[in-house]
Structure formats: structure tokens, C-alpha cells
Design brief:
heterotrimer; A alpha/beta; B alpha/beta; C mainly alpha; A: alpha/beta; Rossmann fold; six-stranded mixed β-sheet; four-stranded antiparallel β-sheet; B: alpha/beta; 2 domains; eight-stranded mixed β-sheet; 12 strands; globular; ATP binding (chain A)
Chain lengths: 350, 363, 307
Amino acid sequence: MAELTKNATEREPILQVRNLVKHFPLTQGILFKKQVGAVKAVDGVSFDLYQGETLGIVGESGCGKSTVAKLLMNLERATAGEVFYKGQDISKLSGRALKAVRRNIQMVFQDPYTSLNPRMTVGDIIGEPYEIHPEVAPKGSRRQKVQELLDVVGLNPEYINRYPHQFSGGQRQRIGIARGLALQPEIIICDEPVSALDVSVQAQVINLMEKLQDEFNLSYLFIAHDLSIVRHISDRVGVMYLGKMAEIGTDAEIYEHPTHPYTQALLSAVPVPDPDAREGRERIILTGDVPSPANPPSGCRFRTRCWKAEEKCSVEEPLLAIPERFKGLQTLAAHESACHFAEEKAILAV
Amino acid sequence: MPRDNISKQDEGGGVTTSEILSVAETGGGSAVPLLEVDNLQVEFKTRDGVAKAVNGVSYSVSAGETLAVLGESGSGKSVTAQAIMGILDSPPGRVSGGEVRFHGKDILKMSDEERRKLRGNKMAMIFQDALSSLNPVYSVGDQLGEMFRVHRGASKKDAKLKAIELMDRVKIPAAKARVGDYPHQFSGGMRQRIMIAMALALEPDLIIADEPTTALDVTVQAQVMDLLAELQREMNMGLILITHDLGVVADVADKIAVMYAGRIVETAPVHEIYKRPSHPYTRGLLDSIPRLDQKGQELYAIKGLPPNLLRIPAGCAFSPRCPKAQDICRTEIPVLHPVTEQDGTELPGRGSACHFWKEQIHG
Amino acid sequence: MSELATSPAIGDENPVSSASAPAEPRPKQLSQWGEIRHRFVQNKLAVVGLFIIAALFLTAAFGEMLAPFDPAAQDLENTLASPNGTHWMGTDALGRDMFSRLIAGTRVAMFVGLASIFFAVLIGVALGAIAGYFAGFADTLVMRIADVFLAFPLMIGAVVIILVTGRGITPVIISLAIFSWATVSRLLRSSILSVREMDYVHAAKALGASGWRIVRTHILPNSMTAVLVYATFNVGTTIVGVAALSFLGAGVPVDVPEWGNMLAAGQGFIGVNDYLWVFPSLFVVVTVLGFAFVGDGLRDALDPKLR
């Protein structure tokens, strides 16, 4: 049944991101600053998010995945590009119009220790959305709403008057999720929501997020560096490298039929908690570090660490598209990949 | 059933972990292990009372061997390491019991001076955060070279040559050119390599690595872990790898000790623990991590929270979170039992601190 | 070892059990102020400091009732009397009762100290908040001005101002305030800069909160702690400043019973009538310590993470 509804709504993108760009200027000078360059944190990223699905975004630090989250939330202004929410470009909105859109797109933050104001009670934190959007809940009903939310995320509603420091990391993350749910948004952007938590608590929070998705038909953009968790929770996955999308597809396409060398290296590097599964795997150990986003390589950004790189890669930038060789084929390898020499390579023993 | 000699007192009797663990690696061949931790106890004085961070931990490591100590925050895995290294914050921390034998000698009884000579020279530590472990105002060459100048009395020039050699050894490209660079000029992975170089500088017998790759990206993590394992083999060092990541453990460890609330709850050679865990906590951990190679159903989640060390539950500390807990679990602290096959065949190196280990492993 | 320091873990992570666990005993609920008070009184020195400050306030308020003599009344028959049953702290060169003068000095010290800190904080918070919140050019401008004031030695600056305006209580307050606001600004600015990057501020923005709301409910409450603690500490320091200015002859007029003036008068009698400078110094030292103890206690008590 869940499958059916999913399919029915899946063709409806709720969020369309087109050529999103964010350059942070690098400046010099004490009193009068002049720009001497730019960190190209996000450099032309496009993707769609469908109703009720989870799109995972993976990548290493500095790939721009967290900046994408901030751009979608309008916490940073995009340098260029558009973000369409149900067909409306929200990337240039401000004031009242932006505030209205915010009701529908909310965020869960990474660090449960800095994402809650230490001087506010849990009730005030979860109730703040109602203070800002008073039309959602009349004053008298707010306390009850907050208690309902606490219950929904699995916390005792009696904790409403406590302060964040009285809770553990996992519980704080639940509070953050409750705050994100308060306005009944359609989309929740999750920026590394479990990476700061202990292993045994991670599973609790992941399960909670899945339960809430089913209950409220939420769309998640799930940003994380942990490929295992992203696979677990995502319907589709995008792999980012140095401000660009390297490859995007369904979870089976990306994890079982990766065609971009970076995805392949990333997958092969993940330690699997099973020494036997380990033995059958080929390991690709990349050399070197991620180049600086202030000065990315020409052509393909991955070429400096890629074992397949040729002359063409340094001249011509590969576009994110279904590779020629797989076009029209009924194979899971036929998904968008930004590589001149895209080819399948099974990394995980399936 | 050895259940009658289980008492509420702090694991006095029974088989110690180090006995169980040392059988595994040597097959009974070699003499004294490199490091033996025996019933170690560490306390922290806090405003609200005394927190028992380590509650009778025993393990051992031999030359050329890797022991992984696995646990969540607050399990006592790092505190144990700090106690071994002698870098415990004290006060408020205090070793309140037990022995740590290094080459057969109890180092807890040594003078501060003797222990300082041991550090860096014979045992070294690698930390999670390389940036804050390196001094930002000295070049990495100076910091690496200082090891030789202080401990070996090398001249400035020799020290610099040695530093370059070390940087080469940990595969830092263009070592000669970069020896004068400062820590912030290196990437995270390179800084961790420098930390490793520093730890290895004086060719210690024992390395303790506390979450050495946690702060790094996956692709860099693999590089650094490989390097560490390779150097360890080459130099035949003992390695204690402290981590929360079951994946990292699977890659490099020979044997594993799982810690919970200041105690070791399970020990095993690394291959076996994944297939047949003998403690419900280990089982729970394994089931609660999503798999990269399989798209699973709902994750198993261990309920509840790790205990507050000021108020460790009576009996088995895991019992409030354990799906299989019985009355006995809430009253009697389980000691580490040697784990055997159903027919009684010994499983070398395996131990479980669960009253119902038989059911867990065979049931 | 932060895990050790965390508060009693509350309830269960398990959704099912925590939602349906009304039987669980509820620990005593404390309001935020209750908790701060609780932490404050645990610091013994802070409580001592609080008593000192309370005593100073009472002395300042009810000085006339406490003083056995009129602080200005001269008794030329009885000059330079050592401490005795009538004059507990002796008399000065004009036969005025030292104890009564010190009590009267408390009022001057407290008034000038608190007033100048008040104005310093007022200017400092306004400018620091502008610098921290608006960043960019406003920040650069305010901070460079602050640098100028910080670079100027307080004593010399204050002396210059008072030489121009003439001695008096108001010039002292103004000159001390002018030369201490810069530190307040810097403190507030730097803590605003760090608070601004906290995720709870981002979260509020993501909810659509207005700039004013963010400043009022998120940024200021979390960045004022440092200023509050600094201000408390510095009431003591400022009182020393007042005394120092008077001692240098650039403070309040000589005829006002003020600790610095008394010290200045006593300096000619060092080694002869030591009580003339010992008692005023004692008042200054105890006052400074009182405010320092309270400041210290406040810092610990106001930090919500510290438990």
C-alpha cells in the first residue's frame, strides 16, 4: 500500500533545484576590503526532490553538501541558480513571501548541542515556530501542541519545562526534530542529523525519522557523510564532489551499479563491519586530498585523484547526464553520472 | 555453571580478560605480553559524586598485535588508555586500583619521571584531533625533530633530517619541501599522518590510537588506517585501537574488547565477533548499524541510554537496556566467562560478561 | 569526559516506554533562575562576596545613621588620635573621625563605581551589538574606535579630561565610563560573533524569525553573560580607579570624604600614623574582592553547560 501511494505521487517534484551556485568571496584589507578570489562551495548543482521520498546527498567535507542545505533554507543567498518549490522560485524571495515558504520547508541540524538555545525551555524551543507563525496555532492551544509533538518524537510530554542541557544528545536531536515538525512542513532538510550521536542512539533517531516520514508524508533531503546510513534511509542518492554533483540515481543504481570513479572509490573505502564481506571487495585507495574549492582543477574536478583521468578530463568538463554508452539500455547503470569514462564497477559483494 | 562464584564484589574472582585474551594471540607460545592491564579502576570526582569511569578492566597486547577497544562515549575506553599512558586529568581523575604491566613491570608504581621517559620513547599515543594536538606556532619539522633532540640528543641538523625521513615514511608528498610548513598548512589527513610520524618517531613498542580516523573523510580514513596498519606490521609494534566504529575494527584488528559502562563485556578474535556475538550489547550494536551492501528493513535499536556513571545500575550495567534481562541480571554483576562451544570445546580468546552467554551465542 | 558531567539522564530513549511512563518519579523542577541561584550559593566565596556587597550597599544607603560622628566635623583638639574607644579608627590631621569618613566614602565609591560601569555598559553594549550583529563596515568602524580608546592609558586619559573639566563627581564618572566601554564592546562583539553562528540562531532564521526577535531572544541572552560578569568584576576595579584618581589629585574634590582622598592624606604619615592609610586601603581591597567573588560566582552560575 505504501509502495502504491509512493509511486502515484512520485512523478510530482516538490522541490526542483537548478544550477545552484554559491561562491563565498575571499577578501583582503582591513578597513576597505577587496575581493581576491572566491571559494566555490557549490558550483552548479541541480536535482529534484519528489513528494514523500528521501533524497540522500553524500560527499566528503568541503564538497558543498551543507551549503546546499543552507541555500535551500535561504540561510545563505545563492550566487546564481534557482530553487523551485511547487513551481515557484523561492531562492530570491524575502520578507513575508519567504516567511510563508518557510512554513513548508524546515531543517534538522547536525549538532544537538548547538542547535537548541541553552537559555530556553524545551517548551519555548518547540513552541517558537508558533510564536513566529501565530496563525498556525492560537495561543491557548500551543502548550498542548508542544506536548503532542514531544509525544510524537518519543519524549515524555512532562519534560516541557526542562532545559536542553538536561537531555542527552539523542534526546536533544528529538527536540530538534519536534521543532522542525511544529509547522507541519512538507520538506525537511536534514544536515547530518545523526552523525554526532552514539551508534546505539543513531538507530533510534533514524527509525523515528522513518516513522515520521510515513506518518506525515514528509520529503527528506538527507545530507550525510555516512554512506551506510544514507543507503538505509534514502530512495535516491546524489554524490557530491567539490561543489558539483558527480552522480545521482536510485539507491540500487548508486550502490550496486556506480559508474562514476569517485562513487566507486567512496564505496570501496567504507569499512564494512564484517571481515568476510571485506575479503571479497576490491579496494580503491585514492591518493591525495580533496583540492581546495577556492582553486578547483580545470575540467573534471575529480581528475587530480582519478586513476582513469586522461587529457580530455582536464580540458572538458563532464556534464551530469546518462552516459552515451548506457543510453536506452535496460540496466541500472543507465543513470546520471558526470564522467567522460563512466563504466560500471561492482564494488560491493551483492 | 560457574554462577555460584559470581558475587557483587568487583570482579575479584573468575577469569580475567587478559588471561582470555592472551591465549588467543600467542597460542601459548610467547612469554610475557607487551602490555597487560589488570583489573584497572579509574574514578572521577565530580560535583555530584564519584563517577566510576573504569571498573576493573583487564586486557593485554603483544608485539605485532592489534587490539581494538570498542565502545560508545562514556564506556571508559579512552579513560583506560589515558590511565595507561599516564595522562589522566588528575584531579578529577584517579586510578583507584589495578595494575598496568608494561614489559612485565607495573608502570603505575613508577615515579612520574620514569613514566615520562616511557612516554614517546616506549609508548606513544595518537589522538583524534590532529590539529589541536599539534602546536600551531612551530613548524611540523621542528615538532618532529624535537622528539630526537629531547630523547636522543640529536643535533639540530640531524633532527631535521630525521624529520624529513619520518615524513617520507608516512608518505607525505614532497617531505623535503614541506618540513618547514606549519600544521594549519596541511590537510586533515596529512596532519593525522604527521601525528602518526610523531608517535612512531622513536620506534615505540606500543601505540595507542584513540579514534585516529574519526575526524577524517572516508577516502582519507582508508589511507590513514592502511598506513598505520602497515607501519605497525613493519615495526612489529603492539597497537591498541580505540574506536566506536565496528567497520574500522573489522579492517585492522586481531582481537576486540567491547566496553560498556567501564567494564569489558565481551572479548573475541575479530572474525568471530561479527558472526557470533556472545553478549546482547554487541549483538545490539551489530544490528543497529545499517549495512552498506544491503538495503535492510527497519533498524534494530537498543532502547534507552548508556548509564550515567554516577549511578551505574545494580547488577549488569546493561540490564535496563537488555531485551533478555532476567532477575539475576539486576542483582548480580556478571564476570567475564570464558566462552565455549556447545560441546564444551574451548573458544580461545573469547569471553562474555553475560549471565546468559550460552543462550546468546548458541540459542 | 563531558558525559560524566551531564545531568541525570532523563527517562528512556525508547519512544514507547518514555511516552507511557507516568510512574517515573519526577525530579524537583527548578526554574532557570532557581537553578542559577542554586549554583551560585554553592560557591562559598561568591556568597561571602554577596554579603560584602550587601554590607556596602547598606552602608552607602544608611551612612548617616551608622556614622558615630559628622564626617566633616573637625576637632582640632583631637587630631591624629590613634584608634580608641571613641574614635574606632582614629582621627585625621584635622581631627575628623576616620570611621565616619570611611562610611561616607562608601557612598561616593559605590555611586561613582556603579554609575561609571552603568554608562560604560550602556555605550559598550550599544556599540558592541551594532558591531557584532551588523558586521561589515559598522564592525570595522566601531572596533577601530574601540582600539583608539583601549590604546589610551585610562589614568592619563581620565586625568586629561578632569584637568579640562575640573574636579568633581560627574567628570570622574564620565571619564571612567569613556575609557572602559571599549572592553565591553569587544567582549560583547566577540560573543555575539560566536553566538551568531550557533545552529539555534540558524534554526530561528529558518523558522522565519525577524532580526529583532533573533537578537532579543537568542543572541543577547546568550552573549550578555560575559558582559554581566565583566561588569560585576569591574565595579571593584572602577572603585580603585576612582580612588586612584583622587589620590593623584584628579578625582573628586579634596573636601569630599572619599577613600582615595583619605589615602592621599594618609601618605604623609606612613610609618608614623599608619592607620591613616591602612583603613582606607582595607575598605578598597575588601570592596574589590567582594565584587570579584560575586563576578566569579556569576560566571559559573550563569553557564548553563557547567554542572
